[in-house]
Structures are given as structure tokens and as C-alpha cells.
Amino acid sequence: VTENVMRLHIDGDLVAEAHLCSLSSQPDNQDDAYQVCLLGNNSKVDGYVYNVQVLSMLGTIQEQYAENPPSKLSIDYSCCDGIEEGDDGIWCIVGGKASCRRNFMLEVVLTNAFGEHMNKDTQIVASLVYADNGALVEKSRDDAEPPLLIACEGLEYPAESRPLPILRGRALFKLKISQVGFSIC
User: Fold this and answer.
1) Per-residue tens of pLDDT for the chain, all 185 residues
2) Considering only CA atoms, which of 122, 20, 112, 107 is closest in space to residue 64?
3) What pTM was computed for the model?
């Protein structure tokens, strides 16, 4: 933990990073749901606040969220084949032909504020983005295949054209990364 950044290292590898704020900092930073605020003094951390939400004065949190609780999407399981992972956890992929495709699966879980699996009628779409700037990976030319394919019923489709339904709070993506050039994703 530094004055402005908190980093989580597991087995010496950086796995997460969050920017910190002060509870008395400028008003423009207080609405950022991704901020983590540390509490304490004398260089000792007594606690933290994450994902701050202001509720009305009436009712409890459970009453506020009983009808439409906020949701959280997280990866429950992942498996990859032929994808090199760097020391920083970023996948390094170079491909171009069907024989160079990299296969992987992601199982995602949608939970509500109470940690319960959400059973609402929702669909999600997989996207491939660059790790350094978060930009979508796009086709390198008009006749190229999409950079991310999804397998459905034995056929392959561009991932963005096939949203998956979330059933009992879960969705399983069977994906293939095709050509992304020489960039890191």
C-alpha cells in the first residue's frame, strides 16, 4: 500500500491494483465506484471502504435492494489451451490461421448484493480487449475472421453476434482467439 495505490501480490506476482482516495478528498472522486478508501493513522491501516453507495434514510439495505439488488459478474472458472501467460498475468497471443487459434473456456457467475446467484433473464457477450488500454481487438482487414469466436452447437460464430443467456446465475463461454497480430491481449 502506498499513498495513492494499493497493490495485491500473490506469490510475488501482481494480481490486482486499485487507486486509493481519502474520505475527505475532492467531491469529483467520491462517485468513483472503483475507488478504495483506507481508514487509519500513523501508517497503520484499520479498515477500508469499497464500492460506496449512498442510500436513502428510510429502510434498511435489504429493503432498498429487495426488489432490484445490484449485481456482480465474476469469473468462476477458466481453462486455456496454447495461451502463454506472462509474469504479470497477461495473455500473450500471436496467431492468424485456424491452426493457430487459441481455445479457452470461461465460466462466469452473476450474483446479487447478498451473494445469491441471480436468475433474471439476462444475456452477456464476450469481447477481446487489449490489456494495456482496454480497446476492443478488431479485425485486421475486411476479409479476416473476427478476433474472438464462440462455439455454439458445434459451429463457430463471431463472439459479439452470439450473446449467451445466464441460467441459474451462470454462463459458460467456449471461445477461440484467432488473429490478433503481434499485440498483447
Assistant:
1) 566 677 777 777 777 776 665 544 455 544 555 566 666 777 666 666 666 665 555 556 566 666 666 788 888 877 776 666 777 766 666 554 445 677 888 898 988 877 888 877 888 898 888 877 888 888 777 777 888 889 888 888 999 889 999 998 999 998 888 755 544 44
2) 112
3) 0.53
